[in-house]
């Protein structure tokens, strides 16, 4: 078993991470969305170690993180005008663009596809590690495959202790859900995974419609191929079984009150609602405020496990703006179990 060091952010720990990147040792680090596990995008053997550490299916490609425009051109064959507009508007930040890949990217990163996902993170630690090593890094979220993404270093440690050598502790992630993934391969951009950068944000900059993959809010059909391979796997799931109850707080209260006093049954609700609900509660942000919900969601799912929740009834978020990202993650955590009240 590997000994896992958990280090605060200092010049020394950043130097160590940059050295790991150059020599092909995987490690975890903070980004503004969630924590990631990094390896040089040019080092196929190191990238394989990421898949091993996470228990990740090999056909699910990784996102490459850059910190200057030269790196974008090194990793791709072609960058459209639309892609440049989005880069200018949203980088550094939580937006990943799918673009035609160059030969230089390790095959393991792209999992057999002819494209590569690229983003320029705004987190200063991620940027420093890239600039110091001179290497763009491939990084998935730093959870075991299938678990909620980690938004702090302790949650990474929980999943990855003994599986990698170093975790840089940069405190809590600001955004809390993973980047928006948009495919820029065809004329009409397609959102494959919603995030903090919304459809409206993208359309505002491009001045044209952006499509939403139907897999965002629906289960894939039998035998259907996923545009974004990650969407076909069970995701973000705590141990507890979750059911989303869509409707007013009043109807929610009425529905859950029949479980009063039963052990292991919890509510996942919005802040301020706990006092009026008859079950133990964990909260995730404020009603109608997608950003605060996104910030809390994954930590709250892990908190429910820590409390020993067996069955959870969740207040349903809206499905527009940033809330669409929250609903997309919660829906998968709930294995698509939704009750309309
Ligand atoms: O915010 C984030 O994006 C975080 C942080 C660490 O940057 N990373 C992250 O990576 O969420 P991961 O591996 O957990 O999710 C990557 C998603 C998957 O759904 C994957 O299928 C999709 O992006 N993806 C990556 N490359 C792709 C490609 N070439 N074509 C289509 N989808 C791709
Ligand atoms: Mg992930």
Classify the helix fraction into a percent range. 25-40%
How many DSSP H or I helices?
11
- Report the end-to-end length measured between terminal Cα atoms: 49 Å
Shape field: globular
> What's the Cα radius of gyration?
20 Å
Structural class: alpha/beta
Strands ordered across the widest β-sheet: 2-3-7-4-6-5-9-10-11
Query: What small molecules accompany the polymer chains?
Result: threonylcarbamoyladenylate, magnesium ion
Low-confidence blocks of residues: none
Note the run of SSEs as H and E.
EHEEHEHHEHEHEHEEEHEEHEEHEHE
Could you give a short account of the major beta sheet? Answer: 9 strands, mixed
Mean pLDDT: 95
Strand content: 15-25%
Number of strands: 16
Features:
binds magnesium ion; binds threonylcarbamoyladenylate; 341 residues; alpha/beta; 9-stranded mixed beta sheet; 11 helices
